[in-house]
Amino acid sequence: MSPISRRHVLAGAAAVPLTSLLAQNLTAPTAAANPPALVPEVAVPDVKLTWLEGRPGAAATSTWGTPWAKGTVPASQTFQLSAPDGSPVPLQSWPLAYWPDGTLKWSAHAVAPDTPADSYTLAAGTPAAPATAVTVTDRKNYVDVDTGVIKVRVRKSGRELIGQIWRGDVEIARKGVLVALRQDRIVEDEEKAPSRERFESDIRAVTVEQSGPVRAVVRIEGRHGRSWLPFTVRLYFYAGAESVRMAHTFVYDRDGSKDYIAGLGVRFKVPMRDAAYDRHVRFVGDGHGMLSEAVKGITGQRRDPGATVRAAQIAGTKLPDPATWDQRVTTRLQYIPEWGDYTLSQLSSEGFTVRKRTGKGYGWVAVDQGSRASGLGYVGGVSGGFAFGLRDFWQRHPTQLDIRGAASDEAEVTVWLWSPEAGVMDTRFYHDGMGQDTYPEQLEGLNITYEDYEPGFGTPYGIARTSEITLWALGATPPAARLGAMADQVRTPPQLINPVDHLVAAKVFGGLFSPVDRGHPVKAVIEDHLDFLFGFYQKQVEQRHWYGFWDYGDIMHTFDEDRLVWRYDVGGYAWDNSELSPDLWLWYAFLRSGRADIYRFAEAMTRHTGEVDVYHLGQWAGLGTRHGVQHWADSAKQQRISTAVYRRIYYFLTADERTGDLLTELVDSDRTFLVLDPIRKIRTEPYTPDPHALSIGLGTDWSGLAAAWLAEWERRGPKAEVARAKLVGTMETIGAMPNGFVTGSGLYDLDTGRFAPVTAKTVSVSHLSAMFGLVEVCAEVIDLIDMPAFEAAWLQYCRLFNGTRAEQTAECGAHFGNLILRQGHARLTAYAAVRLNRADLATRAWSEFYTGDGYGPALPWTSQHVTSTLNPTDAATWVSTNTTALYGLAAIQNLALVGDRITAP
């Protein structure tokens, strides 16, 4: 089966409603929509997998995706996994995406080894079954999941997400609920503090998404209370595991001017069965530093119970019979305080505090302070206990871990995603508008602060955040070394990855990357420059403290050469919000290097930009917000920020369900153009959105839509055929335009999924059009769909953007005007050089890379240490994030496309 061509689309479909087109598709044989996978002519290659940060030091679970070259792996292929010694490893596999010919494009896999190996080999074959499979029992009122070590009851209604967690016959935790504190106003100056109201989870739907044998996933949806903060929680279970992973997503459904979040957390009750001196509290701080205490401490007392007794309590093991102690202690045990309440609060990235008290109504005693806690805590005793860990604990401050009532029959644990001690979450807009009431005034404001302000647009309504929590049901208080290993896995969850060579050979993501190669002296210099830029931003995150609940994962846009700080308070120069695709720079940098530090940086950015910078509810659902002082402040709500192209790489590498949700949300985002005109402030003629003639840009707009349609089609989602028809229809009608992409925009029909015919040669070119994923999307769809007219239109744009005015005029009837970002567009020239087999374009691509308006070889390529700022930092006044992202992508893609024709500067 060849790739889809124009014959798959009805002739003259511009006048045919999309629903009619789909009806004909659906009545055709199944093979027309989803052709059968061919039997590969070559054997399925073996893939050697390794751990991202090296072999974990304890039992580990991991889920990942592996790509396959077009036409090599049947859709029905099964897989096996083996350790280096050839022993089989239990494996669960499922498809993630397909090539147009029906063969497998991405497969997902899950493992849960007790003793992880250094590496594994994935191959075609029959998977080994786990010794004890994870099982799911779906009842009317609850779902029971059994890993073989623990059993978890998930409620289908009410407020308790998790009713009970058992280990064997012992109940370890119960009554797991979500907690949100609401405050109606923010305290100003010395006003009396307003009251707070507590809400708990209200479950609306429970779905079993996977049911084993290695991995099970249960999705829970609901709200906090009945009318606030919609949430989606996924619970992940693995065969043989004693833990459950929770992915908690909430959507902020207020406008930022009322109903403030004063606390947000997950709460459990923990039965306490052991004697007070056999109950333990643990917090892991920096590294493996640890608070290790008993509820009733018998060490350090005036009377000594005996060395054996003291050693047992320090180790967390059961104490000898009190009858064997020094009776001067035994007879006075009732006078030793029982410390039932503990709190670890991390209110900034630079410090946490720990305190304790005997109980409610009594004074707190300071325990200690530290810098950056791991986010792992434990409460329990020698007969069993409950451990809990929050990922990115200090990075996403303010966070907190609470233990209450550990001296009673039932302790209470709360993992606070937003600490109630931090004050309310202030999501108000940061200024009063400064008189920018009309479009002309707003454009003037844009000309000074680079902020595109508009009243009512700086709202957080509809933004989201996902947090990851791990819960352990343990048979006894774990030793310090094990708690340290658990803390490491909270900080950095184990992740299996594919080798770079396999990623390159599979030709996924447009084939626009190649392995790092320092074999040529000029290439080595470029690699040094790429390393410098990533290392510089890595340092900036730490030195400038780009941390916090809403901020972590983003980077700043532009540097202030005078203050020697980033322009965090200057309009559109502050948070970057994916401007000019730093997300893609980082992911392509990982794909070609396999570097763990780049992966984690890109992962944090994807988690942030996909959730915080994009609306998931309300009239702007499916749109993202342009760069600004607050992530939601700017009035430019556009496809270029929400685009699926920034999420797809992480999704396919990890099979992460939440990221899959983000892709699904965008499938119908073409309808957002009915709600908001992206260029409303600069139109010279009246414009009313018409569902049959929506003005959509062929650059930043279409690339976002096309990326979402591509993701839905290749994943065979519920709207896959609609998505395919829209993708193919818009490609055909772009290819039919006399000037193709140079036309700039088209009138799009929501019903037909096509652009209206264009007869005149129109020239409207923006330097931004191709810089938000259009390059990457076009490379992929051209590889997937046989459509010569579309490819010709894209190659024309690639050739001419950096071409001469004479060349532009000769082909298009007019030149493109004064353009910038020529270095970033060098990769378009390189792409055209390969597709057209033109050596002159390859030479031109390298010339544009060296002499374009970006980073040149003569720059210092160093930073300077600065001590005059609030904290000592490194500064490179010549660095800007726009240029960094484009330099990185141009370097990576030029090396991949025309690296064999590299020239010296």
From TrEMBL:
<dbReference type="Pfam" id="PF21345">
    <property type="entry name" value="PcRGLX_2nd"/>
</dbReference>
<dbReference type="Pfam" id="PF21346">
    <property type="entry name" value="PcRGLX_3rd"/>
</dbReference>
<protein>
    <recommendedName>
        <fullName>Tat pathway signal sequence domain protein</fullName>
    </recommendedName>
</protein>
<keyword id="KW-0732">Signal</keyword>
<feature type="domain" description="PcRGLX/YetA-like central beta-sandwich">
    <location>
        <begin position="134"/>
        <end position="487"/>
    </location>
</feature>
<dbReference type="InterPro" id="IPR048330">
    <property type="entry name" value="PcRGLX/YetA_2nd"/>
</dbReference>
<dbReference type="InterPro" id="IPR048329">
    <property type="entry name" value="PcRGLX_1st"/>
</dbReference>
<dbReference type="InterPro" id="IPR006311">
    <property type="entry name" value="TAT_signal"/>
</dbReference>
<feature type="domain" description="PcRGLX/YetA-like C-terminal alpha/alpha toroid">
    <location>
        <begin position="493"/>
        <end position="901"/>
    </location>
</feature>
<dbReference type="InterPro" id="IPR045793">
    <property type="entry name" value="PcRGLX/YetA-like"/>
</dbReference>
<dbReference type="InterPro" id="IPR048331">
    <property type="entry name" value="PcRGLX/YetA_3rd"/>
</dbReference>
<feature type="signal peptide">
    <location>
        <begin position="1"/>
        <end position="33"/>
    </location>
</feature>
<dbReference type="Pfam" id="PF19501">
    <property type="entry name" value="PcRGLX_1st"/>
</dbReference>
<feature type="domain" description="PcRGLX/YetA-like N-terminal RIFT barrel">
    <location>
        <begin position="46"/>
        <end position="124"/>
    </location>
</feature>
